[in-house]
């Protein structure tokens, strides 16, 4: 092969390369933006979603009917000192709240939405303690007891509130606050401090916890604060 021929081929390739670059730089670019996309309004989206027929509607109704037949059994287990943990695919929020509103009407109920990032377990513990204190006062009025309620909190520390909720008393199985925790493994409850507070709260003698767990791998957790919470619920 002639050396001059090779040089001519390389030169032609170089010219083609730079020519392509010049032509490419002259191509017009689109000025469209994502914000220019004509999206449907929220009203149209909701209207379209409302027309979607739910799948397995009959099966879901039958399943909920089966669960509702267990409400009295669940309440009995709570009275015996156990907790309840709901797991599986799909939201358990409506089921848990229906159980509380229809079966736990004689007890104070506090709801903790674990799926919210802004959850504050210290504030939740204070709220549970205040609910239990109000419930004790109400029970004294109902029974006609003349005993004065002593101030249970020597300080405003979390340990003090937990000690009050874990105190001994008569009829402990019938005198408790029910705590509903939606998504106990949610983003707002995954830090070690919140998990520790949850575990201690679930172990209190005057607290019964009904919780849902949604992460697909959550039942596999070991050697963590979450496992302590699950043990407290069984």
Automatic annotation (TrEMBL):
Residue ranges constituting the Origin recognition complex subunit 2 RecA-like domain according to the UniProt record: 60-221
Gene Ontology BP annotations: DNA replication
Subcellular location as annotated: Nucleus
Signal peptide: none
InterPro entries per the UniProt record, alphabetical: ORC2, RecA-like_ORC2
Oligomer and partners: Component of the origin recognition complex (ORC).
Record-given protein name: Origin recognition complex subunit 2
Source organism (scientific name): Saponaria officinalis
């Amino acid at each position: 092969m002639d050396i001059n021929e090779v040089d001519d081929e390389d030169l032609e390739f170089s010219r083609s390369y730079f020519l392509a670059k010049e032509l490419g730089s002259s191509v017009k670019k689109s000025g469209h933006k994502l914000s220019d996309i004509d999206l449907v309004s929220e009203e149209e989206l909701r209207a379209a979603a409302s027309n979607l027929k739910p799948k397995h509607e009959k099966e879901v109704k039958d399943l909920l009917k089966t669960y509702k037949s267990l409400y009295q059994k669940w309440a009995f287990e709570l009275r015996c000192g156990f907790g309840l943990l709901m797991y599986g695919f799909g939201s358990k929020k409506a089921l848990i709240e229906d159980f509380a509103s229809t079966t736990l009407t004689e007890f104070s109920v506090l709801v903790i939405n674990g799926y919210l990032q802004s959850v504050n377990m210290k504030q939740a513990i204070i709220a549970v303690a205040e609910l239990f204190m109000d419930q004790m006062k109400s029970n004294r009025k109902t029974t006609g007891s003349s005993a004065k309620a002593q101030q249970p909190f020597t300080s405003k520390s979390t340990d003090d509130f937990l000690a009050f909720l874990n105190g001994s008393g008569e009829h402990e199985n019938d005198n408790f606050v029910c705590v509903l925790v939606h998504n106990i493994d949610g983003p707002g409850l995954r830090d070690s401090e919140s998990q520790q507070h949850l575990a201690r709260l679930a172990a209190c003698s005057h607290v019964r916890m009904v919780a849902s767990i949604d992460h697909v791998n959550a039942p596999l957790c070991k050697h963590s604060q979450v496992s302590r919470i699950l043990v407290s619920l069984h």
